[in-house]
Amino acid sequence: MTAPKLGVLTASHNRRDSLQRLHRALAQQDSVLDWLHVVVDDASDPPIAEADIGAQPGRLAFRRNPRNLGPLITRNTALEIALSHAVDLVAFVDDDDTVTADFFCYVRDMWINHRNVGWFVSRCRFTGSTVPGSADWPAADGVYDWYDDMQIRRRFGADVMHVISAQRLAGVRFSTWGRYQREWTFLARLARSGGFYASNRITKESSYSPDGLTLRRRGPAPDLVTCVSYVTKPAIIALHRPFSYTAWRSLARQLIRFPLRLALLALRRLGLA
Q1: Domain map of the chain by residue range?
Q2: How far is 220 from 209, CA to CA, in rounded Å?
Q3: pLDDT of the chain, 273 residues: tens digit per residue
Q4: Other beta carbons less than 10 A from residue 197's beta carbon
Q5: How many CB atoms lie under 10 A from the CB of residue 251?
Q6: Are 136 and 160 contacting, i.e. CB atoms less than 8 angstroms apart?
Q7: Which fold is adopted by the domain 5-207?
Q8: Which is it for strands 5-12 and 34-41: parallel, antiparallel or unpaired?
Q9: From CA 251, how far away is CA 64, in angstroms rounded?
Q10: From CA 18, how far away is CA 229, in angstroms rounded?
Q11: Regarding beta strands 161-165 and 119-127, do their DSSP bridges make them parallel or antiparallel, or are they unpaired?
Q12: What is the residue-wise DSSP string for the chain?
């Protein structure tokens, strides 16, 4: 079976140095693979140019948004670019993360041994501060369900590597409705076609910035879309797993909090909070 062509997708904003680090890590892998690094710069200031990344010849597809569009639209753009280059698999790697030296070896193994699944999840190695549950992982490799194992039972860590086949991605894109708290919709849509294969292998290295969103205490919802999203996510999970007490309890909690979120948002818009 031939090796796959891999597209590594990175939506970037104001992270020139870490982009260079990620591209070097892809160029210095332990094993050989046909790969393309797709970088969409979301209107960094100062601007980041293609030459700044130090790309290997023929290994970079670069585009710059004329204005800041947010990570979701930017990831969709990167995905369309990758698919136009006839990739077999895509991996989503943020601009502040990098990959391990054996990442391509992992990709090849998944393609050879579990190609029919089409969605592969692996672990992250964290440096610095993390969020609770980052190290959680099932004891055995195998096929798992996004609704049951990631959302309801929460058997997986807070950040994972997703590698997905082009075939599995047919018609699945990130939501463009709102800028915050909407990454989950992509995975929920993907999960409708089946589970993912989880491997207890570390393929990504992550670190959370002290002033970034991940470690920051969650404050009031910044807009109406986010207020609605707090309810929409548990509602969709409950509808797909209607016999789960945990799913319905989570939805009930968010429904109780929803009026308060709206009130706080209105007060902020009026300049009273």
Answers
A1: 5-207, 224-269
A2: 20
A3: 588 999 999 999 999 999 999 999 999 999 999 999 999 999 999 999 888 998 889 999 999 999 999 889 999 999 999 999 999 999 999 999 999 999 999 999 999 999 999 999 999 998 876 666 677 899 999 999 999 999 999 999 878 999 999 999 998 999 887 655 578 899 999 999 999 999 999 999 987 765 554 545 556 677 888 888 889 999 999 999 999 999 999 999 999 999 999 999 999 889 887
A4: 20
A5: 19
A6: no
A7: Spore Coat Polysaccharide Biosynthesis Protein SpsA; Chain A (3.90.550)
A8: parallel
A9: 39
A10: 30
A11: antiparallel
A12: -PPPEEEEEEEESS-HHHHHHHHHHHHT-SS--EEEEEEEE---SSPPPGGGG-PPTT-EEEEE-SS---HHHHHHHHHHHHHHTT-SEEEE--TT-EE-TTHHHHHHHHHHHSTTT-EEEEEEEEES---TTTT---SS-EEE-IIIIIIIS--S-SS-EEEEETTTTTT-----S-SSS-HHHHHHHHHTT--EEEEEEEEEEEE--TTSTTTSPP-S-SSHHHHHHHHHHHHHHHHHSTT-HHHHHHHHHHHHHHHHHHHHHHHHHTT--
**Pair of tokens at residue 215:** 């470690």
Enter the pTM of the model.
Answer: 0.91
User: Which residue type does 82 have?
Assistant: A
Q: Tell me the two tokens of residue 137.
A: 């992982």
Here the tokens at position 221 are 């919802």
